[in-house]
Design brief:
InterPro entries: FAD/NAD-bd_sf (IPR036188), FAD/NAD-binding_dom (IPR023753), Ferredoxin-NADP_redctase_2 (IPR050097), Pyr_nucl-diS_OxRdtase_2_AS (IPR008255), Thioredox_Rdtase (IPR005982). Helix content is about 20%, strand content about 30%. By secondary structure, the protein is α/β, with parallel strands linked by helices. Helix 1 runs parallel beside helix 2 and helix 1 runs parallel beside helix 6.
Length: about 300
């Protein structure tokens, strides 16, 4: 491909689409490259309630992303469905190569996201978004007055479990060890919470149900004993939240961009260590990974890319 774009955006989740929208609206020639479906993690969320200004009743992840995609298209962002295999980011022209194509741009915005580590149980994929979640902030309200389970034992797992107690009638932490890995100060708060319970030395073996998650088999890792947990008949379902960590989609940039635990380091304006290369959304080091923060990152990255190009 001979064309040199002003901006190439890698990833079409909320960060990438917001970047494409803002770059296109700034009259920058823009290409968004996505290897799969638009949306990233939000594409598997059935309902969204916490996106500011949301006016659509029963908003879903796919419906929100569909509108973002159309907005980016409206302002001229071009699209390519491709998998980038290598990058050359130094110099005035950045080069991104796939198996069949070579893309060039003056600036690159990395918005490849991160994905939760799976719980690792049988039938897990079938119930993601139908009882299994990886975001308490996103989905806690949907389990108000229901029973929920949290898989994990680190800081995030325990903090998210305490957050869930504001909504669920009962929250049980399932942890494969006999003690939590969370900071002692967090543990003290957790043990003092009357709505929080614990299943020690336990892993989730399998999940099941009709349309929604209503049955789970757990295994004691010390004794091998299997226990079946079923939803209260009046509820018909329960929730399982996985918090055993995330895997950032950053392998492509190993040894090229500065990282921390696999996440790309940026300043407040989304600059990486290489001039003309920006990172936005879940792929970068940050304290909150939500649709609203991803979109904000994308907008900032696009504006900074414009500034870089015009300098």
């Amino acid at each position: 491909m001979d064309k040199i774009y002003d901006v190439i955006v890698l990833g079409a989740g909320p960060a990438g689409l917001a970047a494409g929208l803002y770059a296109g609206r700034s009259r920058l020639s823009t290409l968004i490259i996505e290897k799969g479906k638009d949306g990233g993690q939000i594409a598997i969320t059935d309902e969204i309630e916490n996106y500011p200004g949301q006016m659509v009743e029963g908003e879903s992840g796919p419906s929100l992303i569909a509108r973002m995609t159309e907005q980016a298209k409206k302002f001229g962002a071009e699209r390519a469905n491709d998998t980038i295999l290598s990058v050359e980011l130094e110099g005035d022209v950045k080069v991104l190569k796939s198996a069949k194509n070579e893309y060039r741009a003056k600036a690159v915005i990395v918005a490849t996201g991160a994905f939760p580590k799976p719980i690792g149980c049988e039938n897990e994929a079938k119930f993601i978004g139908k009882g299994i979640s990886f975001c308490a902030t996103c989905d806690a309200a949907f389990f108000e007055d229901f029973e929920v389970f949290v898989v994990g034992g680190g800081d995030s797992a325990v903090e998210e479990a305490m957050y869930l107690t504001k909504f669920a009638r009962k929250v049980t932490i399932i942890h494969r060890r006999d003690e939590l890995r969370a900071a002692k100060s967090i543990q003290e708060k957790a043990f003092a919470n009357p709505k929080l319970h614990f299943l020690w030395d336990t892993v989730v073996q399998s999940v099941d149900g009709d349309e929604l998650l209503s049955k789970m088999v757990v295994k004691n890792v010390k004794t091998g004993e299997l226990t079946t947990i079923e939803a209260d008949p009046e509820d018909g379902l329960f929730g399982v939240f996985g918090f055993i960590g995330y895997n950032p989609n950053s392998k492509l940039f190993d040894g090229i961009l500065e990282m921390e635990n696999g996440y790309i380091k940026t300043d407040d304006n989304m600059h990486t260590n290489i001039p003309g290369v920006f990172a936005a959304g879940d792929i970068r080091v940050k304290s909150l990974r939500q649709v609203v923060t991803a979109a904000a990152d994308g907008a900032i990255a696009a504006m900074q890319a414009e500034k870089f190009i015009n300098e």
